[in-house]
Amino acid sequence: MKVAILVSDASFINSLENVINEQGWDIEFYTSSSEFSLADLTSMNVILADQEIDGMTGQDLLKSIYNKTRADLYLMNSDLEGFYEHDTKNDYIKGFIHKDIESIIAKLQYIEAKIKIINLTAISSHKLKVILAKANGYSFNINNDIAYIELRTFLSDESKVHLLDKIKNAGINKAIISYPGQKELSSIHYEQLLEICNFFHRNNKYIAFWNVENKACIDATLDGCKLNRIIPAFNNSKEAAGYLNSK
């Protein structure tokens, strides 16, 4: 994954660089809009721009390049509320990131997993149609303040909304998710996992994953698409519950 980060603060770059190098991403740092003008926009997967950079605002810079790149564009600021009300109505900014190292790493981990899942070619269009044609559904139970969610197959949009509403209304902050009986998960299952995981992270909730069937294969795929960086996987529900109870 290739990432461009525009920020004028050299000390912030040094701090971020020390942490980000451990992730294995291809990162290019730019300290001004003029320096960034020399970048190869077509090669970028993600571009993060600080709202305050030399030469122009980060928002204006992203607006000037959005039709020149396929990269996801994100605006950073130390105070998100400072521009949320005025600047969210646009078609070029993918999202907003709080300007701190933890938030940046978490967002890039999410994007990396999303990119890898999209690129998975494990299932054919025929198999996809078969999966979607099956009756979809889930079970939802709460035990000791932890929601146990079993996904029987790929959820329809309606079922997914119903599940997320149920999580919100239950008022729980921790959940264990699994696909019981599934010996193999396709790319759409991992995409669904990522979406549910993102919902939990956005709402300051914790999630863990385990699967009873063919765990070694599923673990390998989770690692391959880097999804295990943002949703920890365990051998059984007891281990997953222990992890969640430590949060």
SSE inventory with pairings:
Elements: E1 2-6, H1 10-20, E2 26-30, H2 33-36, E3 46-50, E4 52-53, E5 56-57, H3 58-65, E6 72-77, H4 81-87, E7 95-98, H5 101-119, H6 125-133, E8 138-143, E9 146-151, H7 157-170, E10 174-178, H8 187-202, E11 206-210, H9 215-224, E12 233-234, H10 237-245
Parallel strand pairs: 1-2, 1-3, 3-6, 6-7, 9-10, 10-11, 11-12
Antiparallel strand pairs: 4-5, 8-9
Question: What can you see in these coordinates?
Answer:
The chain is α/β, with parallel strands linked by helices and about 250 residues long. It has two domains: about 120 residues, Rossmann fold, CATH 3.40.50; about 120 residues, Transcription Regulator spoIIAA (2-Layer Sandwich). It contains ten helices and twelve strands. Strands 2-1-3-6-7 form a five-stranded parallel β-sheet, sandwiched between helices. The chain has a five-stranded mixed β-sheet with strand order 8-9-10-11-12, with helices on both faces. The protein starts with a strand and ends with a helix.
